[in-house]
Amino acid sequence: MNGKSEQKKKFIIETARTVFMEKGFIKVTMKDIVEACGISRGGLYLYFQNTGELFEEVLKMEQEDTDDVFGESIREETTPSDILALFLNEQKKELLNMNQSLNKAVYEYFFDTTIPARENLLKKQFDAAVYVIEKLIQEGAQNGEFYCEDPRGAARNIMYVLEGLKVAAQTRGISEAAVDREILYVMQGLAADE
């Protein structure tokens, strides 16, 4: 694709992201995307064949944006505990701002049994986050910031806590105090004895 085609594709993905945030996944049609983008139906189908394909591109873009934000915040002298705290703080922002989140759409997409078998991006993202957190915990344990006998288990536990908080935030709402309490509990569980 040339530069103009890439820009148009990116515009479609960014616009679709907003539509998916507003409506979830199930209720979004290609017509919704066409109207939001102000392009022809053929113009959309030139890039994407269905909402599932488009949503997967939205998820990939989200992950790239998250990686960029996270990467820019980390300096050479940043400690593992600082990096973990930054990660948990970013999760907190998402939890407290569910109307600017794709979580509802993500759950709808992955629970939709009518979509043909596909690579499970959600599992890949979960596993990648577990891996990164595990490495942070290992490094923090080596330098005395953390105490943890099972870094992989602790990393999985952190991700399951975050996943549970996302479901709670989406289904019944969650207070900032509740999120802070859970994050504090996670960090206290890793604290090395002074």
Protein described:
The protein starts with a helix and ends with a helix. The chain has 194 residues and is mainly alpha-helical. The chain is 73% helix and 0% strand. The protein has helices at 3-23, 30-37, 41-45, 51-73, 80-96, 103-111, 121-142, 151-171, 176-190. The protein is built from 9 helices and no strands. Helix 1 (3-23) packs across helix 2 and helix 8 runs antiparallel to helix 9.
Features:
mainly alpha; 0% strand; single chain; 194 residues
Layout of secondary structure:
Blueprint: H1 3-23, H2 30-37, H3 41-45, H4 51-73, H5 80-96, H6 103-111, H7 121-142, H8 151-171, H9 176-190
Helix pairs in contact: 1-2, 1-4, 5-7, 5-9, 7-8, 8-9
Q: Give the low-confidence spans.
A: none
What characteristic shape results from the CA principal axes?
elongated
- Radius of gyration, in Å, reads 19 Å
Main structural class = mainly alpha
Strand content: under 5%
- The average pLDDT score comes to 87
For the report, how would you describe the main beta sheet? none
Summarize the structure.
This protein is mostly helical and 194 residues long. The protein is 73% helix and 0% strand.
